[in-house]
C-alpha cells in the first residue's frame, strides 16, 4: 500500500520534471535564435536578472522535489508532534480515579470535573450529558482466553466496542485483532511497552505510541486514532503531546477491580457493580482478561438498553490543539 503511494508520487514528480525541462529547452532555443551574436559581453548580459539555463533547471528540479514531497505527504499517513509548544504545561502525573460519587443523573462526578479541566487537550473522561449514549471499551494487555467469547457476545448483540491493545497482544493474537477490525470495532492504542507515560521523557512516551501505530498501519492497513494511557496515567504535557499527534485520549467514567484474573469478584458481584453505575454518557472500562466480564457482558448490554441508552460506536470528535505556548502550568499556581 505505502510502496504504491510512493510510486505514484514519484511518477507524478517525474512527469512534471520532464514537462518543465521541455518547456525550458524550447524557451532557450527561441532566445538563442532571436539574439545577434556578440564578440564582447554587454551590460545586459552581465546583469543579475539574466539567469543561466542550468540555474533555471536547478530551480525547477528543486521545485519538483518540493512538489513530490508534498504529494508523498498527502498520500502517506504521518504522525508527528512539536514538543516545544507544550514545555510550559505541567509534567507531573495527575492523580485521579472515576470514584463512586454520582450526581442526580447517576453520572460519576470526578470524571465530569476532569472533563471540564482537561477536555481542552482532547481527552475524554465522560461523554456529554443528554447524549443518550453509552460507550463500551476493553483493555487488552494480553490474551487470557476470553476475547473470543466477548467478541461473540458483541456480535450477537450488534454492539461496537473499542479495544485498546498493546503491541505484544497484537503480535500474539493477530487473528483476534483482524476479527475486531472486520466486525466493526475500533482498535485503540494502548502503547507498545505499557509504560507510564509521565515517568518517561516526552520523546520516549511518543515513541511508545508511534511504534504500535506504525505496526498496525503496516501489518493491518489500519490507522489508529484513539489512545488510552497505561494505568490511566497522564499529565498536561502528555495529553498535549498525544493531541498534537492527531490522537484522542480516552479515559473512563467507570471501572472496577477486574484486572486480576486470580482475584475476580465473582459473576454476581461483577454484574451488580457494573449495572449500579450505568449512566448517560458513560465510558466504561472493562478488562478482557476477566472471566466475570465475559460472563456478564450480555446481561450488561441488555440492562443498558433497558434504561434507554444507545451503546454507540465511538463517535466523539477529535479536539484540535489550541495555542498552548502561553498557557500556564497548573503547578505554577501551587
TrEMBL record:
Recorded superkingdom: Bacteria
Keywords for the protein's UniProt record, in alphabetical order: Signal
GO biological process, one term: carbohydrate metabolic process
Segments of this protein annotated with the region Disordered: 26-59
One of the record's GO cellular component terms: membrane
Signal peptide: 1-24
Signal among keywords: yes
Protein name, as recorded: Polysaccharide deacetylase
Organism: Anaerotruncus massiliensis
